[in-house]
Amino acid sequence: MRLLYTAGSPFARMVRIALLETGLDTLVTKRELTRAQLYSADSEVLVLSPIGRVPALELDDGTVLTESLLILDYIDVHTRGPKLLPRNGSDGWRTLAEMGQAMGLLEGITTWLRALLLPEPERSATVIARESSRVNRAADALESVVACGAYSGQFNTAQIVLGIALGLIEPRMPGWKWRDGRPHLSQWYDVIADRPSFRATEPPAL
Fold it and tell me: What CATH number belongs to 89-199?
């Protein structure tokens, strides 16, 4: 198998962490691309997918998976150890619900960040205000559920997504003091960020 990714992509980071956590990392050849390489007209990614996004996982039979959640599912099916996504009973639905909430935070952060990085004439104050409100609302909700024991127990995909979302903030958006007023979420993040898989895949600052 071959994985194409960029070091700064939070969606590729999901896959990289899952590979490390399941022990499948050693079975995958990894190719890190720079942003310039990713967006060039002759990008390697375009050979695998016309969409041109990472992560892109090429399987041994030539099949290409290009969505992070699909790749996570593939990894989970093929791991021999504990599953990252429980598939039976209420645990599976609870993990999916938590993953959806964490994914909402991640998508909000990436949208907010893209809006902030636009050149001044192209920035939309309306979009920035809307995404700021959405992300803070999501973070407040996560503070409440984490305080009640959510995102705990056996390590799973929901914890990966939430850890990646929170891990994107300080290197990319240091002006947002997300820890203020959210002690449970802050403490939760400090624990998960210390996992070897998270330390090995820390995103670079902009």
Answer: 1.20.1050.10
